[in-house]
Amino acid sequence: MNKCFRESLGVIFYLWYRLLGKRENILSLYFHNPSEDLFEKIIRSLHRMGYRFVSVEEFTSILSAPTEAKAHRPIAFVSFDDGWKNNLKLIPIMEKYNVPMTLFVSTEPILSGNYWWEYPLAFRGLNYVNGLKKLSREDFLAEVEHCKTLVTLERSAMTEDELCQFAQHPLVDIQSHTHTHPILTKCPADILEYELVYSKNYLESFLQKSIDVFSYPNGSFSPEVVEGVKAAGYKYAFTTEATSIKDWGGDWLQIPRRSINDGGGLYENLSKIFGVWQRILR
């Protein structure tokens, strides 16, 4: 499905939502590496609809409140996964619309410069990357290391200095996204513990702040992974499940978020933000 066709569907789905859909007063969203243009279009649209952007602290506080005490004005929680260098360019837009951002950082790419999937993506494309995610951990690691010997990349992740500067901005909150961004459901218990604990300890030491919020890489989790997140000392964890907040079951280690397609258009993404796209194109 090409971008133009997806955007045409997005217009239809979004118009249907505006005419017949029930407004959602609490949104939970996440980006990866959007362009400045797409980010501002989405934020401006939500701002014009009356949404107020909130930090993860205020978001979880509102979710903790009794139903009758929840904010009447619609709110949106905005998060980012990974720690892409281009996220730094979004600061002026965040300031313009007063958008707090929670950035879930994978710490190894901050040190090495790139994310594991960039190598197989450059080598053989997206289908190859998706296939790697289904392999055993041993085969997965072997394939990725092979790709690294064949591909040279420019740095795409923030540096330590950039992350430190970004973290000092009053609208930015840094939290954990593991160390190497593995498929956690493929990790043995010792590697799972290492990924969860090392990134937490690294960020706490480096940024001199408490790290108690987590997001699952690739959206992959299981009961064992959730237990590992709890044992590592995280209070809250975000999934990539597109469930609406009103239908969320209340598990603080499985808070839903709806994904923004960095390569999509405004209306495709608005229809995803309000859950219409997911309901129609299951």
Written overview of the protein:
The chain is of the alpha/beta class and 282 residues long. It has one domain: TIM Barrel (Alpha-Beta Barrel). 46% of the residues lie in helices and 12% in strands. The protein has 13 helices and eight strands. It has helices at residues 3-20, 36-48, 56-64, 91-97, 107-112, 118-124, 126-132, 137-150, 160-167, 189-207, 223-231, 266-273, 276-280, and strands at 26-31, 52-54, 75-82, 101-105, 172-176, 213-215, 236-238, 258-259. The strands form two sheets. Strands 1, 2, 3, 4, 5 and 8 form a six-stranded parallel sheet that branches. α4 links the parallel β3 (75-82) and β4 (101-105). α1 crosses α12 (266-273). The longest helix is centred in the C-terminal third of the chain and has 19 residues, at 189-207. It starts with a helix and ends with a helix. The model has no long low-confidence stretch (mean pLDDT 95).
